[in-house]
């Protein structure tokens, strides 16, 4: 491995956190420990009040996307005068007007450019854009990070499109779903695991880094996300290792042998363990981690497994519809989700169940239009819930009733 210099070794050794959560090893430019800059001026001008450095990186230690940029700063041994790291809280938080003027999505990291630049740009958002700007700006310092290496760029692109867009499935509450293209946590986690394996296939077979013997932007991008994966995936599924074998060996190598990535690991893990886990108990209420479907199985599981015969009228990978063996109307069909996924009854539904509930309703409408099943001009759709609602089987099911004019409810 190439030496990263005495500065980086000292940086890793002296780890006294400041108000932003980062080490104070880099000499402070301006002391502003408690104040929040208000939007009484442009956001770039407001940032200048916090530091007179050439750039300010607004970031916090737990941010895996921000860690991509921090890995570049540490490996290139950039001074705090060149890039100061300040918490977005100093601008009022991620959703403050001040910070969102810099990062319109309210996401970390954001970078202000506090010196004249040929582009005329005053600030940048999105970690890949910030990383490539800094690599060009400080091309003559430290490792190049191989910004034009096609292998590195392939890994970075796959990571940014197929991992970071759905990583929220590992830590966000149900109210924040869907994530990316996935309506439920289980399918998002499966996709996350699948794409880790895809990225493993892009790796070089030589050297300790993803692209060989030299660190690349791919290493800086993927390593912090793999910290999330190693720590969080076992909370949901411990039946297989969180990282595929080749990727796991690369991760362990960087953590043990590259002091910059070791520092990144410590920065992220400190917040994950002390704040997210021990203080806030983040995963206690998250479905499939702290909360699981522990209700006993039902007769519907045997119907789904084809262990008990049923007259099936509609089936796909998500739902099963079959005729009720004790019909209360000439046409009576039950629709159930194949994966109960906690839906013993409708009161257990959350935003993670939006997709399957929608699929059940669409199927109900299609079935109610099927005259061959005995339906005529309309139907009644019923979900019984709990003891008071007359529920008999604790696996969510939707009754589609029709074939004659039905009387009043009650």
Walk me through the structure.
The chain has 410 residues and is α+β, with helices and mostly antiparallel strands. 36% of the residues lie in helices and 9% in strands. It is built from 12 helices and 9 strands. The strands form 2 sheets. It has a 5-stranded antiparallel β-sheet with strand order 5-6-7-9-8, with helices on one face. Strands 2-1-3-4 form a 4-stranded mixed β-sheet, covered by helices on one side. A hairpin with a 7-residue loop joins strand 6 and strand 7. Helix 3 packs antiparallel against helix 10. The protein is elongated. The N terminus is likely disordered.
State mean pLDDT (0 to 100 scale): 90
- Tally of extended strands? 9
Our Rg estimate from Cα atoms comes to 27 Å
Widest sheet, order of strands: 5-6-7-9-8
Approximate helicity band: 25-40%
Tell me the fraction of residues in β-strands, as a range. Answer: 5-15%
Q: Which ranges are low-confidence, i.e. pLDDT below 50, for 5 or more consecutive residues? A: 1-19, 24-40
Q: What overall geometry do the principal axes of the alpha carbons give?
A: elongated
Report on the biggest sheet. Answer: 5 strands, antiparallel
Class derived from helix and strand content: alpha+beta
């Amino acid at each position: 491995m190439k030496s990263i210099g005495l500065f980086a070794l000292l940086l890793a050794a002296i780890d006294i956190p400041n108000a932003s959560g980062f080490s104070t090893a880099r000499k402070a430019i301006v002391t502003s420990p408690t104040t929040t800059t208000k939007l009484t001026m442009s956001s770039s001008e407001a940032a200048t009040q916090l530091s007179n450095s050439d750039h300010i990186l607004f970031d916090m230690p737990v941010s895996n996307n921000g860690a991509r940029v921090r890995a570049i700063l540490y490996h290139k041994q950039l001074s705090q005068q060149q890039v100061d790291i300040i918490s977005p809280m100093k601008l009022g938080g991620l959703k403050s007007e001040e910070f969102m003027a810099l990062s319109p999505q309210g996401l970390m990291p954001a970078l202000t450019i506090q010196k004249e630049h040929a582009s005329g740009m005053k600030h940048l958002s999105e970690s890949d854009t910030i990383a490539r700007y800094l690599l060009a700006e400080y091309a003559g310092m430290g490792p190049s990070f191989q910004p034009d290496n096609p292998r590195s760029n392939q890994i970075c692109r796959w990571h940014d499109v197929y991992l970071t867009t759905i990583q929220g499935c590992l830590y966000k509450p149900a109210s924040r779903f869907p994530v990316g293209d996935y309506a439920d946590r289980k399918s998002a986690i499966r996709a996350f695991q699948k794409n880790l394996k895809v990225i493993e296939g892009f790796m070089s077979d030589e050297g300790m880094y993803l692209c060989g013997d030299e660190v690349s932007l791919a290493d800086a991008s993927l390593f912090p996300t793999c910290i999330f994966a190693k720590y969080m995936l076992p909370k949901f599924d411990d039946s297989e290792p969180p990282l595929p074998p080749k990727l796991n060996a690369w991760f362990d190598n960087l953590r043990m042998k590259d002091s910059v990535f070791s520092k990144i690991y410590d920065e992220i893990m400190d917040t994950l363990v002390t704040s997210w886990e021990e203080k806030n108990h983040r995963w206690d209420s998250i479905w499939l981690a702290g909360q699981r479907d522990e209700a006993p199985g039902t007769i519907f599981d045997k119907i789904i497994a084809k262990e008990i015969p049923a007259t099936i009228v509609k089936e796909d990978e998500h739902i099963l519809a079959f005729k009720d063996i004790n019909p209360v109307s000439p046409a009576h069909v039950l629709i159930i989700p194949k994966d109960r996924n906690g839906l013993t009854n409708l009161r257990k539904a959350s935003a993670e169940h939006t997709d399957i509930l929608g699929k059940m309703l669409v199927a109900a409408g299609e079935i109610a239009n099927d005259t061959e099943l005995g339906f005529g001009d309309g139907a009644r759709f019923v979900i019984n819930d709990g003891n008071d609602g007359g529920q008999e089987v604790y696996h969510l099911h939707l009754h589609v009733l029709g074939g004659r004019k039905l009387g009043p409810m009650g």
